[in-house]
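Data deposition worksheet. Section B asks for the primary sequence of the deposited chain exactly as it was used as input, without tags or linkers unless they were present during the calculation. Section C holds the resulting structure in token form. Section D is free text for depositor observations; keep each observation to a single sentence. Incomplete worksheets are returned to the depositor.
Section A, Depositor: J.P.
Section B:
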Amino acid sequence: MSSGLAPTPPSRSGAEHPVVSRTVTIASRVGLHARPAATFSRAAAATGLPVTLSVGDKEPVNAASILAVMGLGVEYGQQVTLTAEGTGAEQALDSLAELLASEEDGQ
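Section C:
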């Protein structure tokens, strides 16, 4: 190689691993604070996929980070968007969306 640049690795996105998203209304009466946020973040981390959570016009955050999730200040009845990419993303988001749509407050 005369340019001294490393070759660009192949892209991991595309038809092979489409980006999937779900919009869900928060059912927990305390929103995504403390226990519900911890329960959700653990479940997001357990998927093994890069999952993001966003609300309104705020930047998406790492759903596996309890501090980032709590920092969004999501309240009861708000709609959030979950996004993931990779093998099993659809099933993972279905499960996470179900968790957020339940009235379980993480107790």
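Section D:
The CA atoms of residues 41 and 64 lie 4 Å apart.
Confidence is low (pLDDT under 50) at residues 1-14.
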